[in-house]
Every structure is written in C-alpha cells, then in structure tokens.
Design a protein that fits this description.
The protein is mostly beta strands and 394 residues long. It folds into three domains: 150 residues, Jelly Rolls, CATH 2.60.120; 84 residues, Immunoglobulin-like, CATH 2.60.40.10; 100 residues, Immunoglobulins (Immunoglobulin-like). Helix content is 2%, strand content 39%. The chain has a five-stranded mixed β-sheet with strand order 1-3-4-7-8, with no helix packed on it.
Length: 394
C-alpha cells in the first residue's frame, strides 16, 4: 500500500470528506519537509548544471514544501541552491513559487517564471533568518548559464520536459497569414488568439535609455519575448515579459546604429505566434546627461545607487574580503512615505534593481541608511552606516 497527499480543493465536494482528519503542519508527509545544502563537492563535468536541487510539481497543480524551515508553495518547476553557505536562493523556471508563513498563508512574496529571490541562512544552514528579497528578473546571460542547462534533464526523470526559450535557440518557423490589420502570424497552438496581436510602439528613433515597448494582448498567451535585430537583420537579444509591456535599455543591446523589433507569444513555453517586425529604427544619441548616481565607501565597504527611470534604482555593493555572506542593506524609501526598505543579498559584491509600482512626482527618492554583514571568525554582525547623496528619480 502507498499513501499520498492531494489538496482538498482538487476533490469534488462531498460531505464524507469533511469528516476526514486535517493535515496539521506537524504531520508533514515524507519528503514534503527537508533541509537542503548544496555546493558540497563539485561535478566532474564542466558542462554540468550548477550544484542545485530541481523540484517539479505535477502540471497545473500546486504543491507545498517546507525547506530549511520555510514554507513554499510551488506551481511547476523551481531550482533551489546555496550560492554561498549563508544564502538560500529560489529560481523559478516555469510557473511560480509563493513564500508562506507558519500557518501556510501567503506572505505576499511571489517569485514568477524567470525570477529569483534569496534569503539569509543560519550559521548551520538549516533555518531561514531573514525575509526573502524582492524577486528580481534574471538577465538573459545568467538565464542561459544557470537555467537553460536543465533542458537536458531526460523527460522520464521529471513529470514533464523542461522546454524554455534560451539564448541561441533558432527563431521559430512562422507561417504567413492574414490576421486582419494586426499583421501577426496565426497561432500554431490551440487556445491562443493572435488575431489582434501587434506592436503598439515605439516605431521611431530610440535613445540608449530605458524605453517602454508595448504590444496588444494575445489572449491565452502566458508570456512574451521582445526580440531585437541588428542593422544586418541578425537577432541581437530576446527579453521575457509576462504582461503587454517591457522597459528595456536599448543601449545595452548590440544592435548597431539601426534596429528592428518584434514580440513573440508563448503559452506554457510553447511558441504561438509573432507580431509583424518593425521597420528599421535609428538609435539616437542620448540627449540627457547620465542618470543621477551616488556612492559611499569606508571600512572596505562601498554602496552606490543610480536612477534607472522614474520607477526604479540600481543598487550596487562591495564588501571586504572578511565577509562570510552577502549584506543586508536598509535605506529610506521616501516614495512610500519614509518607508524603511530592507533588502538582503547573496555574494560579497553585486547589484540589484529596486523599484516602485508607479512614479509619484517629486517623491520618488531614496536616502542613506545602513549595511550589515557577517565577518569571518567569532565576531558578531557588523553594521556600517552609509550616506550616499539622496536620489530623486521622479
């Protein structure tokens, strides 16, 4: 005989079910609760994926796990690892992962496909000791390095095969069709309507600054990719989005002086259709000075930030050599009414993007605070105040 657990919401209503005993947190089924530590030893093959644990739930079904004491609800495929001994990282390949409280209620932290989040670990690596960081979208380069390698996992090992759009993948073959005035190709899979799928803009000169690209919805699609082509018509970059817009810095894309763009629609990783490609668009010189930035350093620590746009700033940090783990940075977020923002990171150096839901003229600004890190040896946590100039990105 074998025993398994399924969520009550998947069972048709039946009075007899109400008499069954409830599964309390302390009665977790085997392998639903476990401790994870990665990075022990190394793979013998240079092409092997980063040391990590890949967990995949049944398709179209959520599964609750308890890992290192934190409750996680996953809705497809995630990867968990320790980038360093005191950091726990979750990366979502497809679907989403929700962080739950001790009563298995959502905390509001939702990591979606193509994003990752980190949290602090205790000294023995068996308990989460801080909140998860705001989910960040993984760059195309890192996605290709850390995520796309899992496409090689044999389908028989998983519930279903991992099939993601990765750097270097061939452009899907598209068929020519009359989709009314949209100019998009017809959908190659059922359930996705591409009849009104088209780019909204921009169609004219673009400066090398963050620019918002927009398109209409393809009902049924679960994700989109904005694809850029260089002056020779070669693919120069593809960027994932879940909604109908994406803010990208064209200055970071190697297109040359002219570029073209299109948007492809996918449903659960399967290609559906593509918009008509724009005509050649000229890249203009940046008419504005570089974005505001500020930095602060001392005691072997440096912290800096700069405006990306009215919605977000980029934070960079560098710790001294004696740091055992990444920092916790606390600063004042005036855009949310003097709100103390606290972010925790893995690694002795790096950068991340912190943003607001919408710009508020005149108060989209941040001010200094403190940085805390764990030094080597028996010392307690060290806290360093940092005071780079305040930024106003409105």
């Amino acid at each position: 005989n074998r025993i398994g657990w399924i969520p009550l919401r998947l069972i048709e209503e039946n009075p007899a079910v109400d008499d069954l005993p409830a599964l309390e947190p302390e009665r977790r089924a085997p392998m639903q609760a476990f401790y994870l530590q990665t990075g022990i030893g190394s793979a013998g093959c240079a092409d092997a994926p980063t040391d990590a644990l890949l967990v995949q739930g049944p398709r179209e079904m959520e599964v609750d796990l308890t890992v290192n004491g934190v409750n996680i609800r996953i809705g497809s495929t995630i990867v968990m690892r320790n980038p360093d001994p005191q950091t726990f990282e979750i990366t979502v390949i497809d679907g989403h992962a929700s962080i739950l409280d001790e009563n298995y209620q959502p905390t509001g932290t939702i990591i979606r496909s193509g994003q990752r989040s980190t949290a602090c670990l205790s000294e023995d690596g068996r308990a989460i000791t801080c909140d998860f960081s705001p989910p960040e979208t993984i760059s195309q380069q890192v996605y290709g390095r850390d995520v796309c390698t899992y496409q090689g996992v044999p389908a028989g090992v998983l519930n279903y095969e991992i099939d993601q759009v990765c750097p270097g993948d061939p452009v899907p073959m598209t068929s020519v069709t009359d989709n009314g005035s949209s100019g998009a190709t017809s959908s190659e899979i059922s359930g996705v309507d591409c009849s009104a799928f088209q780019l909204v803009g921009p169609f004219e000169g673009i400066t090398p600054r963050p620019t918002t690209f927009e398109w209409t919805e393809a009902p049924g699609a679960t994700e989109y990719y904005v694809v850029f082509y260089d002056y020779n018509g070669n693919e120069a970059g593809a960027y994932r989005a879940e909604g109908t817009s994406a803010t990208l810095n064209v200055g970071d894309i190697p297109t040359g002086s002219e570029l073209q763009s299109e948007v492809r629609a996918y449903a659960n990783g399967n290609y559906a259709c593509v918009t008509a490609r724009t005509p050649q668009i000229f890249r203009l010189a940046d008419p504005n000075p570089p974005p505001s930035s500020a930095s602060s350093s001392g005691s072997g620590i440096s912290v800096g930030w700069q405006c990306i746009d009215a919605f977000s700033i980029q934070i960079t940090w560098n710790l001294p050599n004696d740091a055992e783990s990444g920092p916790t940075i606390t600063f004042t977020d005036n855009a949310n009414g003097l709100f103390p923002a606290t972010l925790s990171f893995g690694g002795k150096s790096g950068s991340t993007v912190y943003g607001w839901a919408a710009p508020v003229a005149g108060v989209d600004e941040v001010a200094g605070g403190s940085l805390q890190y764990d030094p080597a040896g028996p010392d307690t946590l060290r806290t360093i105040n940092f005071t780079p100039a305040s930024l106003n990105c409105g």
